[in-house]
Amino acid sequence: MHPPPVLRIADRVALLGGVARSTRLLDEGHSKHHLARAVEKGLLFRVQRNWVAVPGADPLLVAAARTGVVLSCVTAARRLKLWIAESPELPHVAYRGSGRVRGPAAVVHWQRPVVPRHPDALEDGVENVLMTVAACQPYERARTVWDSALNQRLIDVEVLRRLPWTGAARRLAHESSPWADSGLETIFIVRLRWLHLPVRLQIWIAGHRVDVLIGERLVVQIDGAHHVGAQRTSDIDHDAQLMLMGYHVIRVGYAQVMHQWEDVQERIMHAIAQGLHKA
């Protein structure tokens, strides 16, 4: 037995992410009458003239439909689970391309999308997210997001480099790589490039990957919150193996990289001055 039409239309909106354009529902064969009845029964509510949503729909998507924008930049990057150092204070959105942006405070991006936006979209795709991030964020923060997208295989590096980037995005497309497992590793690459030494990420040595290898023998391991218990024991054992093989190991944590970088850099500089990066 099929559910009644008003339930089918509400189920369809839920399947579309909880917010949908009325014109899309009509194009799919749902009637104006059943749409109005679903609203009357409280199965849907009108966000604005051409958008409806189910009760409990994602508030950010509802706000995007109501104000005529799409979620983008660091807001959309966090929703994609890309590496972001800090959550933005205000939502970051992009102009949809027609009409007037309405509604509460937000950071609005006006760049032309690198990939066309579908009229049904309320969130930018990864390519447009990277574009707005490149225009909005300082190079280092933007680079952590771009590297994260490549590392998570949300976009292929060759595809990335074929897209028609402009401005800061053109440099990021050329320099970003998929090898950083976290933004902390990207930060190492960016902040230590002035050394003019090879700084490589995720290199296999003694049966395990090391986070950063500077030169031929200086290993930097970056501890996250998961480096406890059995993981910590494994890390200590691997450090011992590395040192017996002639490597020098420096181990640092998130807070040191993000908030005490001068101390971390000083330690690395002194290790290099002593030639601990050489075979």
Describe this structure as you would to a colleague.
The model has no long low-confidence stretch (mean pLDDT 91). This protein has three domains: 5-57; 64-175, no CATH class; 183-273, 3-Layer(aba) Sandwich (Endonuclease, Chain A), CATH 3.40.960. The strands form three sheets. A four-stranded mixed beta sheet has the order 7-8-9-10, sandwiched between helices. A three-stranded antiparallel beta sheet has the order 1-3-2, with helices on both faces. Strands 4-5-6 form a three-stranded mixed beta sheet. A hairpin with a 2-residue loop joins β7 and β8. It has 13 helices and ten strands. The protein starts with a helix and ends in a 6-residue tail after the last helix. The chain is elongated and about 80 Å long. The longest helix has 16 residues, at 229-244. The chain is an alpha+beta fold. Helix content is 44%, strand content 16%.
List keywords for this structure.
single chain; 279 residues; alpha+beta; Endonuclease, Chain A; 3 domains; four-stranded mixed sheet; three-stranded antiparallel sheet; 10 strands; elongated
Number of helices: 13
- How are the strands of the biggest sheet laid out side by side? 7-8-9-10
Give helix and strand order, one letter per element, not per position: HEHHEEHEHEEHHHHHEEEHEHH
Q: What is the terminal separation in angstroms?
A: 74 Å
In quaternary terms, these chains amount to: single chain
Mean pLDDT: 91
Number of strands: 10
Could you tell me the radius of gyration in angstroms?
24 Å
Strand content: 15-25%
What summary fits the major beta sheet?
4 strands, mixed
Shape: elongated
What structural class do the secondary elements suggest?
alpha+beta
Helix percentage: 40-55%
Count of discrete domains? 3
Poorly predicted residue ranges: none
